[in-house]
Specification:
Blueprint lengths: L9 H10 L7 H28 L2 H11 L5 H8 L3 H13 L3 E4 L2 E4 L1 H29 E6 L8 E7 L2 E5 L7 E4 L8 E8 L9 E6 L12 H9 L5 E4 L2 H9 L10 H10 L4 E6 H17 L6 E5 L1
Parallel strand pairs: 3-5, 8-10, 8-11, 9-10
Antiparallel strand pairs: 1-2, 3-7, 4-5, 4-6, 6-7
């Protein structure tokens, strides 16, 4: 069986944490749940695969002999879940390796065998402890404290500017418990999230500018561009190329997104932010095609609009 390759990122974790323990999902939340379940499947696959590796048949046979009285191969085979012939082959090899011996017609584990058992059990315990720590991380998530919060407080959750906020006084339908104290503006750990956070996907605005062959920003009506942008309630501004960068500088707007702009814009939209992206006609055409490709495979489409200046 091939191991599935599933990636998990912080955004997926935050989305899942905000909606866990609730049976009512919208399409965007369903994506987060599916993503989390795939991650968890992969995570548990890693554990089971490692445990199977550590708990080899040889190890299980050795452990059974060390902790029980066995007179026949059938007894061991039944316990371990393999054939009598399989047990016989393992015992033969383990006897050659000095791990077991026969005393009074009973199988006994030698000192060397006991040392091997302790070594492999210690390795298994170490591995499981590492996985327990990772599971503890999954059980909680961070938020920004909107008020001064004390450990054990019930907090109410909101998405603001693309980030998860926890408030003690401001109420919402999504609640959690603070696992530590935090001052306003600090990060705070929360657990036991219940309810649904009100989150609507943001919109992406694509501004098509003249290409460098057509004059670039020299041929651009900067006043018109600024007025069109001011009509939009935008949270983030990004550029797709040099023409977009210079245009944004000339109208006095700070650039928030310069690298991997399209992917960043999609992620910002998923967090409820409206994004403006500027670039020449060719870059905008490419961005539009990529957004169409994304929406074709998404359960909930990201709305976008192309503006020609």
């Amino acid at each position: 069986m091939k191991k599935p390759k599933i990636k998990w990122n912080e955004a997926c974790h935050s989305n899942f944490s905000c909606i866990s323990n609730n049976a009512s999902f919208n399409l965007n939340e369903l994506v987060a749940v599916i993503c989390y379940l795939l991650f968890l499947q992969n995570f548990l696959y890693d554990i089971s695969y490692k445990i199977m590796e550590l708990l080899s048949k040889r190890f299980l046979i050795l452990l059974e002999i060390a902790t029980g009285d066995y007179f026949s191969l059938n007894q061991i085979a039944e316990k371990v879940g393999i054939t009598k012939q399989g047990v016989s082959e393992y015992l033969k090899k383990m006897k050659e390796d000095g791990l077991i011996e026969i005393v009074d017609k009973k199988y006994r584990v030698t000192v060397k065998g006991i040392e091997l058992l302790f070594s492999e059990l210690a390795e298994l315990d170490k591995y499981l402890e590492e996985k327990r720590k990772k599971l503890n991380i999954i059980e909680c998530c961070p938020a920004i404290a909107g008020d001064d919060i004390e450990k054990g407080d019930r907090v109410y959750l909101f998405m603001e500017n693309g980030y998860l906020y926890a408030y003690k006084r401001k109420k919402s339908s999504a609640i959690a418990e603070a696992i530590e104290s935090a001052k306003k503006g600090e990060d705070v750990g929360i657990k036991g999230v219940k309810g649904i956070i009100d989150l609507k996907l943001g919109k992406i605005h694509l501004f098509a500018l003249p290409s460098i062959i057509k004059g670039g920003t020299k041929a651009l009506n900067h006043e018109k561009l600024k007025k069109e942008i001011e009509k939009i309630t935008a949270n983030k501004f990004g550029v797709l190329d040099i023409v977009g960068k210079v245009a944004l500088d000339k109208i006095g707007i700070k650039c928030d997104i310069e690298f991997s702009p399209l992917q960043s814009a999609i992620e910002a939209s998923q967090r409820g932010l409206n994004v403006v992206l500027l670039g020449d006609e060719k870059e905008i055409k490419y961005a539009k095609a990529k957004l169409d490709e994304y929406n074709a495979n998404a359960l909930e489409e990201i709305e976008y609009e192309v503006h020609f200046i």
